[in-house]
Amino acid sequence: MAEKFDRESLVLSIEDDKENLQELTTQLIQIPTENPPGENYYDICRFLEKRLQRSNFSTKIIRAKGEVGDSEKYPRWNFIARHEGKSSGECIHFNSHIDVVEAGNGWNQDPFGGKVLNGRIYGRGACDMKGGLASSIIAAENFVRMHPEYSGAIEISGTADEESGGFSGVAYLAKNGYFCPKRVNHVIIPEPLNKNRICLGHRGVWWAEILTKGKIGHGSMPFLGDSAIKHMAAVLKEIEETLVPNLLERKSSMPVVPEAAKSPSINIHSIHSGEARGVFENVGMPTPCVPDQCVITIDRRFLIEENLNDVKSEIYTLLEKVKERRDNFEYEIKELFSVHPSMTEKTSKIVDVVSQSIIETMGMSPEFVISPGTYDQKHIDRIGQLKNCIAYGPGILDMAHQPDEWVGIEDMVASSKVMLLTIAKLLV
Ligand SMILES: [Zn+2]
Fold first, then answer.
1. Which among 208, 165, 187 is positioned nearest to 67, based on CA atoms?
2. Confidence of residue 394 (pLDDT cuts 50, 70, 90)
3. Strands 186-189 and 116-117
4. How far does the centroid of ligand 1 lie from the alpha carbon of residue 249, in Å?
5. What is the DSSP string of 292-349?
6. Which of 388, 382, 390 is CA-nearest to residue 171?
């Protein structure tokens, strides 16, 4: 079918806008939005608002008041912009998170300088994911300028707290109707999955705390107490020796990358027991006690082939098995949260259109992947009930959360072209 737009001039418009794209990315990096604690969310929302109002987007800044993480000191602000064409049609939404993880140590560049060096822009959030946000803005701005007569709508959002679960960001907006099939048809999340990769979804997650109980006693006579740490050691041994090998035998049909993440996994996220840490934390010398409680937090990642109830009962069964073997073994489990795996159909229109755009602009076929960890797609899928969502954006995932994080300018240009062609294919 003949396209009603001139592909060449669209692609060229992004080439011509390279400096603009670079400058916008630098400006976004220069607003430090570290989470925790959730700094400067309002400032970045206002910046985005002013920027998109220039292209006649209608904008809203929305606070997730009273939601997880929101406080008077660190309010959780979200930004959403919408531009409507001359007639009705489909709506494509680009969602980026505005928060970045803490800068941390080990940087040679200023983490909030946004410096350009050898074709790269450096800074915290450069690749995860202010470069992606900038690429989508440039694509949308060029589209509405070149095709004012289009049908449908374009939305761009900048949302809070993705790095800490997205509850006051995308989840909040989804609960309030901003991500639902009535309003939005297609969603692209420009996370740094690489310019030729389309991420269809992610594995599932279950977090829980396991507590073992003992009996306090004098440390010089441990036989008079009952060590909760020893009970927990038995749990950890069972996890390592029985559960882990069992998990490694399972393989997903989902195209999870890296390869090792095709199997489910369990991470012992933390362990706490006994007195607070001593000399390392300057709380003085320890007193001699047998610990009567020990808590671990587990982070279990599961496949689309697994069922959440089975994932949970596997842990309960394991604990019962330990209980059979050990005297006075008592435990409790506190479930913290869970996320089901999410996978957009490869046959969906958004996947098809982005694939075509990659082939036409880069001359290569896209790679389809599934992320080992979750991102905001979970809320769009579960709360919003919106199925046509993918992650597609510039940058190399390995750079995310690293010191000297960077995004390549040419990668952003390439992704922005794909985004622009995608919009044109859907709305012209
Ligand atoms: Zn991210």
1. 165
2. very high
3. unpaired
4. 30
5. -EEEEEEEEEE-TTS-HHHHHHHHHHHHHHHHHHSTT-EEEEEEEEEE--EE--TTSH
6. 382
Alpha carbon of 106 to ligand 1 centroid (Å):
20
Does pTM surpass 0.70? yes
Q: How confident is the model at residue 280 (pLDDT cuts 50, 70, 90)?
A: confident
CA of residue 164 to ligand 1 center, whole Å: 10
Between strands 186-189 and 330-339, the pairing is: unpaired
Distances from the Cα of 54 to the Cαs of 48, 131, 141, 145, in angstroms?
A: 10, 20, 9, 11
CA of 163 to the centre of ligand 1 (A): 7
Residues with CB under 5 A from ligand 1 (ion): 128-129, 191
Coil vs helix vs strand at 54: coil
β-strands 77-84, 151-159 pairing: antiparallel
Ligand 1 midpoint to CA 254 (Å): 21
The full set of domains in the chain, from first to last, is 7-202+341-427 (3.40.630.10), 204-339 (3.30.70.360)
